[in-house]
Amino acid sequence: RARAPPLRASSPLPAAAEKSDKGPDGKLTKEAMKALADGIPASSEELFALSVDWDAVHASGAVGSRIKDWVSGKFSEYLGEEDETMTAFVQQKLEERSGPRGIIEELKLVLEDDADVFVAKLWRMIVFEARRHNAEQ
């Protein structure tokens, strides 16, 4: 009876066959998105110092969808009701590529002390969406 050849240690997979950060649909996996988010600074000072790839932000379509929905929800939370005018105001500021400190100053009239936290969270989303868009290209 013939014996099967001895098993050899397999060679490492070529780089192309390694686990990808993208799923079959070309979108980032949850693990890859978490890694992207973890790479964004938590402190406002560091976060606001980052350069934003506005072309990627706008190309992703996030300002008109995910970010708009988040902003609308936050205004409902802070003000007790939806405020389409404030949501549109923030969207306009993002379309104009305004800086975070200017947005904070303008929102302090409505959100008072919550403006700093609101814009820091908003800015994390903007940076994340730009990085995600670039990673998926």
From TrEMBL:
SUPFAM superfamilies: PWI domain. This is PWI domain-containing protein. Residues 45-137 form the PWI domain. SMART domains: PWI (SM00311). It comes from Phaeomonas parva. Residues 1-27 are annotated as: Disordered. Keywords: mRNA processing. Residues 1-17 have a biased composition (Low complexity). Residues 18-27 have a biased composition (Basic and acidic residues). It holds the Pfam family PWI. One of its GO terms (biological process) is mRNA processing. It comes from the Eukaryota. InterPro entries: PWI_dom, PWI_dom_sf, RBM25. Coiled coil: none annotated.
